[in-house]
From TrEMBL:
CDD domains: S1_EF-P_repeat_2. This is Elongation factor P. Residues 131-186 form the Elongation factor P C-terminal domain. GO terms for biological process: peptide biosynthetic process. Pfam families: EFP (PF01132), EFP_N (PF08207), Elong-fact-P_C (PF09285). Keywords: Elongation factor, Protein biosynthesis. It comes from Lysobacter concretionis Ko07 = DSM 16239. Belongs to the elongation factor P family.
Length: 188
């Protein structure tokens, strides 16, 4: 596939290594006849090692066949996370280094996840767009706080820290965007 066809989440092969594309920066050409450049931030699958690659729009990348199975988080086994297939209950075990920073979004019975599989081996995880989590610690609301847009820090049940509006209180459940790591609204 051409570099301009690559989207976030695609799995590609480069120099005999399989990578998942996590971020794409497009730089417009300067002057006449300039070529558009794409800068890909990719992580090796499996392993999760970061790799940056710059290509021209017409450069080729080989897409890797990847199957995705919808799964629900079941339990943690040491450093590994175990997900159960929603259809046939096949367990998929993913190491913490494969999940990386996404581990902060994994809560009990988290559904809507997709385990990515290459050659019958689970190699990656795609989280739902947002996750409902409980606020376990946040400063109290100041009088008149709802009229202003001052955010305050909040620690969530997995240890993740985000900024929330002042009206959010300890014990409340909030939605957190898994793409940006930001407050996405009240849950429930």
């Amino acid at each position: 596939m051409k570099a301009y066809d690559v989207k976030k989440g695609n799995v590609v092969e480069y120099n005999n290594t399989v990578y998942q594309v996590r971020d794409i920066e497009r730089s417009a050409a300067q002057g006449r006849g300039g070529n558009v450049k794409f800068r890909f931030t990719m992580y090796s699958v499996p392993g999760g090692n970061k790799f940056d690659l710059s290509l021209g729009g017409d450069d080729e990348l080989r897409e890797v066949e990847l199957s995705r199975r919808q799964a629900t988080y079941s339990y943690r086994d040491g450093d590994a996370f175990v997900f159960l297939d929603d259809e046939d209950y096949t367990p998929y075990t993913l190491d913490a280094n494969v999940i990386g920073d996404d581990a902060g979004y994994i809560v009990d019975d988290l559904s809507g996840c997709y385990v990515q599989i290459i050659d019958d081996l689970p190699v990656g995880l795609q989280l739902p767009a947002s996750v409902a989590m409980e606020v376990i610690e946040t400063p109290p609301e100041l009088k008149g706080g709802t009229a202003t847009k001052r955010p305050k820090p909040a620690r969530l049940s997995t240890g993740l820290e985000i900024m929330v509006p002042e009206y959010i209180v300890t014990g409340e459940r909030v939605l957190v965007s898994t793409a940006s790591g930001e407050f996405a609204g009240r849950a429930d």
